[in-house]
Amino acid sequence: MNLLFIAIGLVLLIAGGDWLLRSAVGLSLRLNIPRMVIGMTVVSFATSAPELIVSVKSAIGGFSDIALGNVVGSNIANLGLVLGVTVTLSAITVKRGFYKVDWPIMMLASILLYVFIVPDGILQRWEGGVLFAMLVLFLIFMFRNKKGEEEPEELAEIAQKMPGYGRISLFLVIGGAALWGGSELLIRGAVGMAEYYGVSERVIAVTVVSVGTSIPELAASIMAVIRKEKAISLGNLIGSNIFNILAVLGITAMITPVQAKDGRLISNDLYWMLGIAFVVLPLVFLPKKMRLGRLEGIILLLLYASFVYLTL
Which pTM does this prediction carry? Predict the structure, then answer.
């Protein structure tokens, strides 16, 4: 039953996130909000909705290790698993914005989380507020510096098939309900599985739950390669990691403090998150500058496999 709860919960989270994304973007377009603003805010928040709902509900329900482990594990999976699979199947060219803006901000957010949570093992409300404030500054900076760039692929697709207000409202309600119900089932299944196998909630969170909430990115990446379309960019994954820390944990902590009950979240998992985030930089420059290919993908996948093996 626990596995069934997790499976159904993940399906609802993925479907709900997609419905919420399409309806939120459709509504924004109907209200004539500039597309760059939509891409920088609505799309980013909607794609982080599964992680946000799972983390908030987990923290409120007293399962803070799932809330924190979900974000830390998802960030590790985004770069180790999703990026690793993508560049192993098809090489990608990295833009200069990666090392000038995206990577430094991701590392700053990661280090800030480390500084906040390591001393006392708790992410306090005011610390969540600082993270969220940093997100707002990040969005303002990105909006001012990315004018004229191409809009997100999701936005271009939705703009061509923009629904009416009735369907938008219906999908908003259905998407929100699916996210809420999916998170409830996922958390129940994760806690039940942890109890059944005698492992901590943290282990389930940084493996099963985090990979589950990263499935949309992984699926999009693989489909892009199969269709010989432009693969998911490194910038998208870096942006997802930034949002996971600043938005998901920031908002969650502002609602209720997030405590790392299992010390290995701090003594082990957080270091893995920082390490994999850091190692992407030299991989971009070595051996071929500004390109990630099969060799780099294999290295990332081996790092992720090592993390999972040592965690289990």
Answer: 0.84
Q: Please tell me the distance from the alpha carbon of residue 120 to that of residue 118, in angstroms, as a whole number.
A: 6
Antiparallel, parallel or unpaired: β 291-292 and 122-123? unpaired
| pLDDT above 70 (res 151) | no
- Going by C-alpha positions, the residue among 76, 89, 11 that lies closest to residue 297 is 89
Residue 164's identity, in one-letter code, is G
C-alpha span between 56 and 249 (Å, rounded):
8
SS3 259: strand
Residue 228 corresponds to which amino acid? K
Who contacts 241 (Cβ-Cβ below 8 Å, separation ≥6)?
A: 75, 78, 79, 106, 109, 110, 277
- Higher-confidence residue of 226 and 275: namely 275
Cα distance between residue 193 and residue 242, in whole Å: 29
Q: What is the pLDDT of residue 162?
A: 57
CB-CB contact of 37 with 233 (8 Å): no
Q: Give me the mean pLDDT over the 54-59 stretch.
A: 86
Q: Which residue has the tokens 């770069």?
A: 79
Written in H, E and C, the secondary structure of 47-99 is HCHHHHHHHHHHHHCCCHHHHHHHHHHHHHHHHHHHHHHHHHHCCEECCCHHH
